[in-house]
Amino acid sequence: MNDGLAGVVAAETILSEVDGERGQLIIRGYRLDELAGKVSFEAATALLWQDLAPTPTTLETVSEALGQARLKVFQHLPVIIPRIAGLNPTEALRAALASLSDRDETPHHYLVSAAIPVFIAAIARIQQGETVIEPDKNLSQPADLLRMMRGKRASSDEEYALTAYLVTVMEHGMNASTFTARVIAATQAGIISSVVGALCALKGPLHGGAPGPVLDMLDAIGNRDNINNWIKVQLAEGKRLIGFGHRIYRVRDPRADILKNVVKRLSKTGNVRLIFAEEVEQAALQALKAHKPDRPLHTNVEFYTALVLDVLGFAREMFTPLFAMGRVIGWTAHIFEQARTGKLIRPESIYIGPRKE
Ligand code: ACO
Question: Cα of 206 to ligand 1 centre, how many Å?
Answer without folding.
Answer: 7
